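[Meeting: bench + compute handoff]

Bench side (C.D.) handed over the final construct sequence. Compute side (W.E.) agreed to return the predicted structure before the next meeting so the bench team could plan truncations. Sequence as handed over:
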Amino acid sequence: MDRLNTLLEHNRAFVENREYEQYKTDKFPGKGLAVLACMDARLVELLPKAMGLKNGDAKLIKNAGALITHPWGSVMRSLIMAVYELRADEICVVAHRDCGMRAVDPQRVLEHAMERGVSEDTIATLRAAGIDLDGWLKGFDNVSDSVRHTVQTIRNHPLLPKDVPVHGMVIHPSTGRLEVVINGYGDEEAPAA
């Protein structure tokens, strides 16, 4: 059976058995948090448990590396919406150790794309159009520095109110241990954990 049908079969049973009832909440984050985290599969259940979050407690935004690559992209827009429209009053950036975005080689990613059928002409056209594929595909070298950069991007955004604390943390993907990199309540750098 293909993955889609497996998912749909599970969903039919989930709805018929009314398993959704335990997750009922509204659209507003009960703990007033918006969390930007990495999409790593190890964090799907670990991150909320490690942070003491249950369904409805936070707006959870996930992407590769918990990065904001552009101040006017969809991640920043989601954070702005969380603050102004969905009652989030604090933001947490949570990256993790052993991240797949650490030291990503953009050229290797493009080689994989070509192996999967993306033509060299397409890549050349994108570059000729001024798209910095190398910068866009690059990850980071140091996870704590990456968190600092993302926190600063959020804090310095002209549409984010200055009274919203923006915290930066790193989680261990095996133990769930959180290390504070930036304490958004005023301490620029948190003590080493």
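W.E. noted at the follow-up: Helices lie at 3-16, 43-51, 74-84, 106-115, 120-128, 133-137, 143-155. C.D. will use this when planning the next construct.
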